[in-house]
Amino acid sequence: MKNSRQNTAAQILDSLKNDIISGEFLPMQKLHIKTLKEKYNVGTSPLREALSQLMAKDLVVSKNQRGFYVSDISIEDLTDIYQTRAKIESLCIEMSIDKGDDYWEANVIAASHRLNKYSKQEAIDIDEWQSRHGEFHEALVAGCMSPRLFQIRSSLIEKSKRYRSLWLRENVSDAATLSINQNEHAALMILALERDKKAVSKLIEEHIMTPVEIIKKSLSQL
Amino acid sequence: MKNSRQNTAAQILDSLKNDIISGEFLPMQKLHIKTLKEKYNVGTSPLREALSQLMAKDLVVSKNQRGFYVSDISIEDLTDIYQTRAKIESLCIEMSIDKGDDYWEANVIAASHRLNKYSKQEAIDIDEWQSRHGEFHEALVAGCMSPRLFQIRSSLIEKSKRYRSLWLRENVSDAATLSINQNEHAALMILALERDKKAVSKLIEEHIMTPVEIIKKSLSQL
DNA sequence: TATTTTAAAAATGTCGACATTTTGACATTA
DNA sequence: TAATGTCAAAATGTCGACATTTTTAAAATA
Fold this sequence. Notes:
Mean pLDDT of chain A: 92
Number of helices of chain A: 9
Shape of chain A: globular
CATH class of the largest domain in chain A: Mainly Alpha
Low-confidence stretches of chain A: none
Helix content of chain A: 55-70%
Radius of gyration of chain A: 19 Å
Strand order of the largest sheet of chain A: 1-3-2
Distance between the termini of chain A: 45 Å
Oligomer: homodimer
CATH architecture of the largest domain in chain A: Up-down Bundle
């Protein structure tokens, strides 16, 4: 029963990360070693190693002799995260347009179709929609071919998801209203296929910044 | 003697990181726990926590039951790192140009002057020159005002320094020849002050990519 | 000789224990 | 009441020990 290809820290890392991103652990919340050990059924060392990795990713902070805490959020950080994310996404797409081949185009069209069809459905499962939405944006940037830039993109998405999760907790009902702006998605696809870098850049930055004001409001009420 | 404001992991983190970036620990080199414990005078847990943080920063990798290793380098990664770094730097400067005020301008001029004066000296200490060089580029991007983007920039610089360090080890003598291209620096300053985003972007990307071919050569000989 | 087997040595990852520090509850003082 | 002090309870960070696994080196086999 002691076998596994991964060590214990690696095994719990994703769960722990998700529990932070999903908002199960709230910003500034203390992460008690004892509680976490019980929750994830691990010992001190692997747990602290996992927390150390999340520290390096800015999801967790530690104060000496005072333990670990979920890192704080703020309106300034919200804005900065989304703005940076917008710039990076724009960069990725521009590079995609420069380098993307027929297969990239085809995948964009396919992903757009999947998202579009689902958006027009009657009963929309928000998880499924988010999945297709994410895949469409990923298809757009997939031509960029820079592992490091993708990595940067992913880490920013992770961080922005934290804010989105917190907002979702407060507004479960009309979650779908957040960004089911199918017109923008269609426009993004068309402009990308036309290789109109300037126009795509402008539109994608606006698209990504859309939820910021809504989340800001919900955030400032806490 | 047990007092300190930081915990042990945090205390050794910078040393460990620098020893990797400076190339004292070579790519793929095994990082023996026992050896490191003796070198940094720490116990197992803090050491492993520091290594965990470096794992999250892609400077270290671990294989289960086979320990930690300095992460590998490659020509593909070299290119990707520098290209990404060039794009990010360009983005930072463009934002600086959008937002920079009189103080930003003044600091750019000052940093440029310090670098320029030193570059014309007889005996150039490479460390001092690198310091002034780094400060000049930092002054250029300082107007951007995005903590997250700065963070991304820093982590890319760290990673690119690893490649530069390895190159320096092989070519200590004419190290100064690498990038003492004072004309480009002067041009960067002038274009930035003229707020010519397009021209600065183009030049900074070229400027950053300059050493890539040289390092590539030196790397492919290993 | 070259390959496989075997056993000893070394190293890793995890746990529990403990010294030190922080926290929280209660009593004391102003 | 509010502020300060006291002290037990709780939590943290570090260490050493140990079960497992990997590595190394020598012996056995083909």
